[in-house]
Amino acid sequence: MSEQTQPAPVAKKYVPRPEGINLEFHLPAVATGMLHIQRCSACGTWRHPPRWYCPSCHSPDYSFEPVSGRGTLYSLAINHFTVDRAWIEEVPFVTAVVELEEGPRVVGSLRGVPVDQVDIGLAVVVTPEARGDEFAFLWVDPVR
Ligand SMILES: [Zn+2]
């Protein structure tokens, strides 16, 4: 009996399933490919992560409005380990906190910058990428 070699199993990257108000955040990004941020319908305050009530005026009325995604790198973590083996070829990668021009901060994955050259204050743009019908991964790219 000959021994056959099996192809290595292909790892699939885990895709979260957001619910409730977090799902409301992802749906317009999936549908349009543009980042949308929650905004109070009463006073106009931008907020993220999404909340049921406005922290400024306590209104329960809100919408998710498109934003440019432009901002600056506020904080970062260089990841040398991943619990999801599907990401092993991406290590090391940078998890970025971006302060948007509108004010709120969002978390995404930085690409296009070597990890030893990334620095706070970098001008970036956040772009969602649909992963299925209910979740958008957020990429962070440097503005050149
Ligand atoms: Zn408000």
Secondary structure blueprint with pairings:
Layout lengths: L19 H13 L3 E5 L5 E2 L14 E5 L3 E10 L13 E8 L4 E6 L12 E8 L5 E7 L2
Parallel strand pairs: 6-8
Antiparallel strand pairs: 1-2, 1-3, 4-5, 4-7, 5-6, 7-8
Bound molecules: zinc ion (ZN).
Report on this model:
The chain has one helix at 20-32; strands at 36-40, 46-47, 62-66, 70-79, 93-100, 105-110, 123-130, 136-142. It is mainly beta. Strands 4-5-6-8-7 form a five-stranded mixed barrel. The chain has a three-stranded antiparallel beta sheet with strand order 2-1-3, covered by helices on one side. The protein is built from one helix and eight strands; from the N terminus they run H-E-E-E-E-E-E-E-E. The mean pLDDT is 94. The radius of gyration is 18 Å and the shape is globular. It has a single domain, classed as OB fold (Dihydrolipoamide Acetyltransferase, E2P), CATH 2.40.50. The site of zinc ion has 8 residues, from loops.
- Stated plainly, the CATH topology is called OB fold (Dihydrolipoamide Acetyltransferase, E2P)
Helix content: under 10%
Low-pLDDT residue intervals, each spanning 5 or more residues = none
Structural class by SSE content: mainly beta
Give Rg in angstroms: 18 Å
